[in-house]
Write a structure and sequence with these properties.
Blueprint lengths: L7 H9 L17 E6 L9 E6 L4 E3 L2 H6 L7 E7 L2 E6 L4 E6 L5 E6 L1 E2 L2 E2 L2 E7 L2 E6 L3 E6 L4 E7 L4 E7 L2 E6 L11 E6 L4 E7 L4 E6 L5 E5 L9 E6 L4 E5 L6 E5 L2 E7 L6 E7 L4 E4 L11 E7 L4 E6 L6 E8 L4 E9 L1 E7 L1
């Protein structure tokens, strides 16, 4: 959702250009040989969608969620992950979590993320054991029991937490403070998963967002700076000393796991240039600065590798007001195909 907040100026133009939805084919009863695509839509326009692209027919159905539930998804879909037999979709502005059956896409439950009449604004989700952990923009991480599908605890962290990752029995949470811009946060909260309490905050740099764990348990976080004089950078956290062990000088705003390595992505809003580099956490170096060719990508938002298909998927938001695209590359970085999806695609789940 990082782009949506900065693009409110284009929202009202897009509203004026809405078209009547055409009749779409029925979605499959059992999900296979395709991809679920979560599309953010536009901020405060209540037009997020969950679509299905069928690899066999090479066709896209934007109304997947509506056909399965007879209702709309809501405002600003932000994250989507599969865990066990369920799919968890985080809808930020609507403050809901949609839980679907992973095999069929049928609705299991919608969880309201509103407390005392105030929306929590959930952002991202991560899992450990029987628990799901959800960052909420009101300054908490909510704990969801994946069996009962009920919120069992709220853990206070820093301001406007974003990405989160698990390492060594601890949860690392990037506190952005984004709603207080330019007075942003600059810490990563560390939560002990046994006690479910915050044990410390690690200073990392202004406006932390994306965060990932490598195979050895080291934690990498991206601080986005101020989008002007303070650049976006990646830092490595030692999970034992709970301190920053290394900072890197290259541009970065996304980290994606790729086997035992990372794909480091970056979109420069000033120039419009995109970069996807290959990073080796064993040597702590970029081993290929242009692993994925980005000449056909307009606005790179997310990079996702699927071990199921052994392919890399790059999500392109285009100009934020028209149909987005998913660009598919081989694991060696060779372009294969592109397909049109919904408005501002942000997450995918692959079915083979």
């Amino acid at each position: 959702m990082r782009s949506s907040y900065f693009l409110i100026c284009v929202i009202f133009f897009a509203v004026a250009c809405k078209k009547k939805k055409i009749q779409e084919p029925e979605v499959p009863q059992v999900l296979k040989h395709g991809v679920l695509v979560l599309n953010e839509g536009l901020f405060q326009q209540n037009n997020s969608t969950l679509g299905w692209f069928d690899f066999s027919s090479n066709s896209y159905t934007s109304s997947f969620f509506e056909q399965k539930t007879n209702r709309s998804l809501g405002d600003t879909g932000n994250d989507m992950k599969r865990y066990g037999g369920k799919i968890y979709i985080i809808v930020n502005i609507s403050s809901t979590i949609e839980i679907l059956d992973a095999a069929t896409g049928n609705s299991i439950r919608q969880i309201s993320m509103i407390t005392g009449g105030t929306p929590k604004q959930p952002r991202y989700i991560a899992f450990s054991g029987s628990k799901a952990y959800i960052t909420c923009y009101d300054g908490f991480v909510d704990v969801l029991d994946t069996a009962s599908l009920s919120i069992t605890n709220r853990i206070p962290v820093g301001a406007n937490p974003e990405g989160l990752t698990v390492s060594g029995g601890k949860l690392f949470v990037a506190n952005s403070g984004g709603l207080n811009f330019p007075n942003v946060d600059s810490t990563v909260s560390v939560i002990d998963l046994g006690s479910q309490q915050e044990i410390t905050r690690i200073p990392v740099g202004k406006n932390p967002g994306a965060i990932q764990t490598d195979p050895s348990g080291e934690v990498y976080v991206i601080t986005r700076g101020d989008y002007a004089s303070i650049p976006s950078r990646m830092h490595r956290i030692n999970p034992n000393t709970l301190s920053v062990a290394q900072s890197f000088s290259f541009d970065a705003d996304g980290i994606s796991t790729f086997n035992n390595q990372f794909l480091i992505s970056y979109h420069d809003f000033s120039s419009g240039n995109n970069k996807i580099a290959l990073f080796d956490p064993n040597t702590e170096t970029i081993i290929n600065t242009a692993y994925i060719p980005t000449s056909g990508i307009q606005t790179l938002y997310e990079v996702s590798y699927s071990p199921v298909t052994n392919k890399i998927y790059c999500l392109d938001m285009k100009n934020y007001t028209i149909t987005g695209q998913v660009h598919v590359f081989s694991s060696s970085g060779t372009f294969e195909t592109s397909y049109n999806v919904g408005l501002n695609p942000c997450k995918i789940l692959i079915y083979e």
